[in-house]
Amino acid sequence: MDMEEAKNQVFFSVPMIVTNLSYYSITLISVMFAGHLGQSELAGSTLANSWATVTGFALMTGLSGALETLCGQGYGAKLYRMLGIYLQSSIITSFIFSVFISILWFYTEPVLILLHQDPHVSKLAALYMKYLIPGLFAYGFLQCILRFLQTQTVVIPLVVCSVVPLVIHVGITYVLVHWTSLGFKGAPLAASVSLWMSFLLLALYVNYAEKFKHTWEGLSMESFHHVLPNMKLAIPSAVMVCLEYWAFELLVLLAGLMPNSEQSTSLIAMCVNTEAVTFMITYGFSAAVSTRVSNELGAGNADRAKIAVAVTLKLSVILACTVVLALVFGHNIWASSFSDSPVIKKEFASMMPLLAISILFDSAQGVLSGVARGCGWQHLAAWTNLAAFYVIGMPIAILLGFNLGLYTKINSLFTEIGSINTKTSLKTTCLTSEIVSFLISDVFYRKCEKSKNLTSYDVGAGFVDWLNLRPLLPGLHPPSDYTAHQMDPNGALCEQLSRENTAGVTASLTRML
Length: 513
Hints:
Elements: H1 3-35, H2 39-63, H3 65-76, H4 80-106, H5 108-114, H6 119-150, H7 156-179, H8 186-208, H9 227-255, H10 261-299, H11 302-336, H12 342-350, H13 352-375, H14 378-403, H15 406-409, E1 410-412, H16 417-450, H17 463-469, E2 483-487, E3 493-496, H18 506-512
Antiparallel strand pairs: 2-3
Helix pairs in contact: 1-2, 1-7, 1-8, 1-10, 1-11, 2-4, 2-6, 2-9, 3-4, 3-6, 3-9, 3-10, 4-6, 4-9, 5-6, 6-8, 7-8, 9-10, 9-14, 10-11, 10-13, 11-12, 11-13, 13-16, 14-16
């Protein structure tokens, strides 16, 4: 293992892990405060938080993934001015999607009732969602600016601007819930206030910090010209993220259809939440490898990008093994945070081997997802997740959980081993598929390296594709519709891009093969 690379990865990943856990905790703390108001309030806030995640927050996280490709490779290629343009176009994209999602959130109650949820709980969840709508816009903008800073390896300010609002959020939530007439409504409103606070802190930092004078030159109308190109990466990235989030929510719904559904749902929910917490750690490494790969590809250092991938995979798996060992020996303590029932604790312990395998696969799959974002392969990862989770995974879940009746064969101890086993199969398939995609792309690049006659390709291929190929094809020139006429402050040539033709890349790549 490259120890210098490993050290840099750890120094980058740890702040990102803290940042992600802090933002995750903001909405979770609001649910906790609301839950202490009563059983109905707990059910309503929990349902609302779950609905908000799968329909809004996950989508916003996915949409910002385009910046990991554009800003990451642009920074590596010293196209500093373009980073600010890409940030603005991504914020515009997030705003557009937030408007449509907020309309859905406003009519949450009839939607949840249509999904056969309890009417009273649905009404409370809808009330919670309405006060969380301002936070949706803040969260979308926040994810964009987070990626903007991440791709420039600026991570310490992210920690400060996430931990400080988190600490203040506890006080704000307590005051709004217990000291004002808002009560239950104060919990989601506090989350919205804290998310806006975090975004404004980061926005002020970017606007006034001297280190961003080349990457942020202020608002520009040029950003509107990059909205559609941005969406071509943002939408596949959002699909990639949402497909995985939705798959786990479907597992919870499937558990609710089993005999003894209350117990089955509780256990699946415990497993999903356990994986969610561990994935926050994995996501730190995913962000690290995305930044390293995109920066190195943009700078023309393909070999360094490959080393970064190998090192991150090893670090992520090692950390996952540490988490698994902690769960194996401390599963009773962890289960106690969810339930005091001895039966629940016993059955959770019985699922530890399968959950451990799932966490291990998740650690590697999360890193490979970061590689996909760094390389601009979001569309490949989206198709992979669609096939792995829904074409393969869910049919197996139904077959093992219901048709084969695994929940009846070993008493109630293995009530939902079918669903958990499905999750393991799901992760295995997803991991294998992403590795195959990675290897296919690597073979393609190796073939390109051997082609000495290739000096250009169709103008329809985009800027990201050119940056990906440039490190491996030193003689490859940018498409003719790109002009190079601006020098950066260090004297390096910057390509001022104006996309005029956005024809598909597939035909070009096929001809190159």
